[in-house]
Write a structure and sequence with these properties.
Helix content is 52%, strand content 2%. It is mainly α and 331 residues long. It folds into 3 domains: 104 residues, no CATH class; 65 residues, no CATH class; 105 residues, no CATH class. The protein starts with 22 loop residues before the first helix and ends in an 8-residue tail after the last helix. The N terminus is likely disordered.
């Protein structure tokens, strides 16, 4: 993989924002937010990741709001977080832009990256920095290609090519980035996937990610970052909704009021299928329609067991159940 980051181009080391080599020392200097993070991790092995990202990015930009933070710096900081807080994954905080040998592109993402992009957007809104800065303009590869001066005729040709080709993949990526503005109008999702066969390829999801990052810069991990809020609302919904007996019975097994943030996030995830009505399934074997219960839907969504030694037994039971409908257990 080529992990160089073209979003920043070549950066003079003297112009980079300094990397704080002692994360713990930085947090201890933050008398309220930093110490809260350290104490929360000490007691519960969890903390507010968004607040941590705020502290780090603010520290990087404290001397110059227009300072650039390059890929190497983001990587070093994310690794420092993983070292300081065992159990935290560096990849949750930053994954650099990369392009594989077959042309597949993944844009930069992560909690730190999102915080940085949002901070700069707010700085521009408040006119703390200017959008056309000579020192640091954040532009993703997708956004840059969209700004290219391409004629309508050429765009139509590229669009026609995408409707009829799935290879070579690097050319698919290039043409996909250039045609975003003329692909935004479509009738249905089904027709969109039929019109562009590259979306049906194993790596087709990457094209959707490119579009999303171009249209909603810095929002790639928004749901993940806000999942605690969603989980708490799901818990409240199940608790207060009178007709959700299955959800209420499931909650009775857990004293979630005393749970920490991480435990509530997991519980909210497990409850998600219990607040969505099950859909009928047509059996491939007999052609009959079968409507799974909410419990069965939950079991298909996630596997909940108290004893890991019973995992295979649980999977075998589900495998046999699916076989009666001509279905197979997904990996």
């Amino acid at each position: 993989l080529d992990t160089s980051n073209p979003q920043f181009g070549h950066i003079n080391p003297q112009g980079d924002a300094d990397v704080n080599t002692d994360l713990r020392q930085l947090l201890e200097k933050e008398r309220v937010r930093g110490k809260e993070i350290l104490q929360s991790y000490k007691l519960f092995k969890t903390f507010n990741r968004s607040t941590l990202a705020d502290i780090i990015i603010e520290n990087q930009l404290k001397d110059d709001p227009n300072a650039r933070i390059n890929s190497a710096t983001f990587t070093e900081i994310s690794q420092k977080i993983a070292q300081t807080f065992p159990g935290e994954l560096a990849g949750s905080y930053y994954i650099p832009y990369c392009k594989s040998s077959d042309g597949r592109v993944s844009t930069a993402k992560g909690i730190l990256w999102d915080k940085y992009v949002n901070k700069r957007r707010n700085f521009r809104r408040l006119q703390i920095i200017t959008k056309k800065s000579n020192t640091s303009t954040i532009t993703s590869p997708v956004q840059q290609s969209e700004n290219d001066n391409i004629s309508s005729e050429e765009l139509q040709e590229l669009d026609t090519w995408l409707r009829n080709n799935v290879m070579p993949w690097n050319l698919v990526i290039e043409n996909w980035q250039k045609t975003l503005r003329i692909r935004q109008k479509f009738e249905t999702i089904d027709t969109y996937f039929r019109d562009y066969p590259s979306l049906r390829q194993p790596s087709g999801y990457l094209l959707l990610e490119l579009d999303f990052d171009a249209l909603f810069t810095g929002k790639g991990n928004h749901l993940l970052n806000k999942w605690l809020n969603f989980s708490e609302r799901i818990l409240k919904l199940v608790e207060t909704k009178k007709d959700n007996t299955t959800g209420k019975n499931f909650l009775k097994n857990y004293n979630y009021q005393s749970y920490n943030e991480r435990q509530k996030e997991v519980l909210g995830f497990a409850l998600l299928p219990l607040i969505i009505p099950p859909c009928p399934i047509k059996s491939k074997k007999s052609g009959t329609r079968y409507k799974p219960s909410k419990v069965e839907t939950q079991e298909a969504f996630c596997c909940i067991i108290e004893d890991i030694s019973k995992l295979e037994e649980k999977l075998e039971s589900r495998r046999n159940k699916l076989l009666t409908f001509g279905e197979t257990l997904q990996p």
